[in-house]
Amino acid sequence: METIKFLESGKLILEKWIESSQTPDENRLDIWISANNLKSVVQSLVENHWGYLVTITGLDIPAVYDQDNVEIQPGQLEALYHFANDAAIITIRVKVPYSKPQIDSICDLIPSATIYEREVIELFGFDLLNTPNTEKLILPDSWPDGVYPLRKSFTNLQDLEISKKEQSND
Amino acid sequence: MNTDSENFYTQIVNKLKNWARINSPWVIHFNSGSCNGCDIEILATLTPRYDVERLGIKLIGSPRHADVLIATGPVTLQALDRLIRVYEQMPDPKYVIAVGSCALSGGVFDGCYSVIGDLNKVIPVDVYIPGCPPRPEAIIYGVVQLLDSLRKGTKPSKFIVPNDIPDFILKEKINGND
Amino acid sequence: MNLSLHPLILLLVFPGGLFLMNIGLMYEWADRKLVARFQSRVGPRWFQPFADTVKLLAKEEIIPNGVHKIMFQALPIIALTGALTAALYIPMFGFEAAFSFEGDLIVSLYMLSMMTLSIGMAGANTLSRFTIIGATRALTQMFSYEAPFLLALLGPAIAAGTWNIGKINTFAGENIWLILAQPIGFIIAVVGLMGKLELPPFDSPEAETEIVAGALTEYSGRGLALFHIGKNVELVIGLTLVVIFYLGGIANPIEFILKSAGLFLVVSALQSMFARLRIDQTVGLWWRLGALMGLLQLLAIIFGRYLGEILR
Amino acid sequence: MTEGKKEKFIVPIGPQHPALKEPGNFEFTVDGEIVTDAAVRLGFVHRGIEKACETRNYTQDLYLLERVCGICSHVHATAFVLGVEKLAGVQAPPRAEAIRVLAAELERIHSHLLWFGVAAHEAGFDTLFMYTWRDREVVMDILETLSGSRVHYSVNVLGGVKIDIDQKLSDLIKKDMDFLEERTEHYMKVVTTDETFLGRTRGIGTLSRDRAKLLGAVGPTARASGVKRDIRVNAPYSGYKEFPVKMVIDQTGDLEARFVVRLKELYESYRLIKVILEKIQPGDIVTRIKRKIPEGEVISRVEAPRGELFYYIKSNGTEMPDRVKVRTPSLCNWGTITDVAVGHKLADMPMLLAGIDPCFSCNDRMVEIRSDSQPSQIMDWDGLRKYGIEYYK
Considering the entire predicted model, what is its pTM? Predict the structure, then answer.
């Protein structure tokens, strides 16, 4: 019962920013917000001592094409900020397009977020504004710039080289 | 006469060198992307139940002091440079033992984007020890195989340690409980 | 045993040189075996240190980039020579010392310090960070244990009224074991010896978990072997000194073996009983506790002698 | 050295470093012996499993995820299995849940003993290291008898477990638990009374409660600082609903507290294992589960030996997951290292690192599994793969 109380209080804190929300599980609450509001949302959670940041998950939603190869829906990246308070989990979800994957950094509010932020920068190509450290954390030093292994379009480094060669041949 | 005695002495010196090499393999351990399983088992060989010091095997930290490189893991791109550097820092003669399925073929990680997969693609390997992870007994057996081939005077031909070492400890324990 | 041998033979064969090296290797084996037994392991075979040394000698020696080459090669030799020379003044194995004069105690002690000094220089000579930190630690440690160790050995010397190791030996043989008369001095001497030899728990100069192998990280092959031998020789000499000073001296080989073995057991037990001290803790221990206790005991001895003379 | 010209240099610890049997690069900027700055570089064990996983189904992923880490393989599998079961709407039988907890607690014992030995080794206390590892072999034997493997137990399958325990084994485990309890008492004495050891742990690396909360520390690191974070208690999962555990808390937050917390957790594990062996109900150990998992997202949290393990699994209705995100406990605790390290001595660093019980393989796992829509594609060999890609172009 405590869990439900936690979720309700969390929802109350965040009420004014919620664009849409859902409860996929009894101990979870998913909240979609716009990218501009992220900082104020996190700030209000931190100020109200609602749980702690578990991690930031990145999701890749590739572009959808119709039969004639026309883009119906542009590719998007989604960042999921999981906050946990005992058993209750609030997930703050932010969607940004490939063309402008910019999200405010929350490192000044939660210093430990830097590792998660570096992770999503490397693996998904998010652009986190004002994040203190953008050095490589996980990928090898020799990794090519602009290649994000966790995007659906990436298959393999060797394939990458092949397609590059093909492009230059064309 | 003179050359004969010289030959005799070189022979003796060579025999002595070989004997020393067999009886004092100093080992350096390098993890190039392993899941820790193999590393723990390598560490376990030092501990009282297995105690490799009785064979003269010593785990040391500096590659400059080492004779044998024990490498685990599927060789990640990031660890690649270091692995080669460690191998190059070791003074001759040096040997390499690959421990675990990952170092043999990539194991479950074969085909991952940041993994090379086979230790032999990077540095020459002398002994392979399969298993995920191999038991400490298997690791000791692998090192002993290397030493045996040194005794015979050949650089070890690619020798693969069978992974069917009986679980005598367990059987003993359960039987003892009856 | 007052044969007039050529000094070079004395240095290279007996009591220095070959004999000491072999004894040193045996000591190393005993040390490792005892520690292994304390850790409930089987431990190495008896020829292990010998095999290690031969193997190291036969191995390629890599001279890293950016070092002073002559220094790099000379330092191990200097270290070993220092230790071997020190052995000339010590009545090894129950025989009389090869050389002796009034004050040879001081000379041999400082010959022993050559080892640490060489290790320190070797560390500073190579460009690796680990070696530099190892060198700093080795020298720091040397400065801290040297004084208490000397004070601890000074006690018996004052009691015997001589600076000659041979005479102290005779004095110790004729009187009550000094371990009973000066227990504090004995403890400081044993612990000081462990500090000198960088045995655990005073092994922070070569703490493998922090700085790989300390000052010797970059040494391979011959250089490493020579340093190893030098350390072993130092172990022999150090133990012999303590036996001479505190355990009633050595009159014959059997006494030497028995007493050394006994002392060895204590040292090995101490090694396996403690966690490594940080370098600052080591220094603190020595200066705050070691030096002070050593001084106190020295004062007590001087006072005792003074009192004894008055009474007489 | 003249004043103001203090030389600073960086001492890298790792990636190839004897203190850490696993790679990971820490750069400590040192002024003399004092650490003035700390930075971390991971990625030496970054295997990027996800791409090879594109054609792997849930069952195959289970075995892959076990190999994220060789120390806590069971909890990884448990977290994944629990998540997938939730997605599929399947509940594992009670006996299976109990066996999962049993294996998890055995793993905790093995992991804590391992950590204790390694930490002692970092402290230069090799005798203690040898003793703990000798005793650890007892647990390894149990695990091997239980599952057939010393490291990767593969206890879990989707929908249950694949091993069962019998009376003989249960008696053996009980006997061994008594033995280990006795040994742990001894270690407790060493940790709390041995002067040289206390010199290396007491008052070192103190992490205050507020800092721990802010930095998001988890597991024993957080609990040693008085933060009540233990998923087994906060959000009981699997068999922990039936077999509750007590949370072990300490207030001081220094290295000694972390030692004490972990050792006390060992007692708790011994107790729990005995309770489970007493009360375990006979019954099935596995239920059927469909190959295709319904579409959905699930979050699964379990308490690994090192702290909270977090799984996010997204399914798209096929045999393969769309995305699996793993957040391992060690990653959370990194922040505390860089925070606490400054001002300590270089000699304390290995102990500090050991204090959080780091697991590099865990951090670098990035086992982010996604699936493309071509399950028939064989991706294992380079040539075939290139052929396949070109074919589909």
Answer: 0.82
